[in-house]
Design a protein that fits this description.
Its main location: membrane. The protein has helices spanning 2-32, 49-66, 70-89, 96-99, 102-117, 124-130. It is mainly alpha-helical and 131 residues long. The longest helix has 31 residues, at 2-32.
């Protein structure tokens, strides 16, 4: 049983990266292109702090999905999510459940893990390392 699970560990890493990318890209899409429609992001200015975050999430999420430049992209996204937590959530209270920062923390530490673990076998990065 342990050997069977161990064989799936690299694939699970790729799945974690792809799902994380899909979740992050939706935030960027909502902020930059207005889809999906999210009232809070209805009037985001591209050169505002939220607009800059949207571009980072849109581009970073796409690169994570592809598994291209995974380590540096994930590191940048981890930093962005830490910044988002401390700027947007922490001032509302200490506990993440109460201040709404749970997802920002999860994104931050998932991206931090991806920045150290890499993209996994189902990625452009893995294909480039084979060549």
């Amino acid at each position: 049983m342990t050997e069977a699970l161990a064989a799936w560990t690299p694939r699970a890493l790729s799945i974690l990266r792809i799902i994380t990318g899909l979740l992050i890209i939706q935030h960027g899409m909502a902020k930059i292109i207005g889809f999906p429609v999210f009232p809070m992001y209805a009037n985001v200015q591209p050169f505002s702090l939220i607009g800059a975050a949207g571009f980072i999430e849109l581009i970073g999420g796409a690169l994570l999905i592809l598994g291209l430049f995974t380590r540096p992209v994930a590191f940048i996204l981890a930093g962005e999510m830490a910044f988002a937590y401390f700027i947007g959530h922490f001032p509302k209270g200490f506990l993440p459940l109460i201040n709404g920062g749970t997802l920002a923390i999860l994104y931050c530490f998932t991206c931090l893990y991806l920045s150290t673990a890499g993209a996994g076998p189902w990625s452009v990065d893995a294909k480039n390392n084979q060549a």
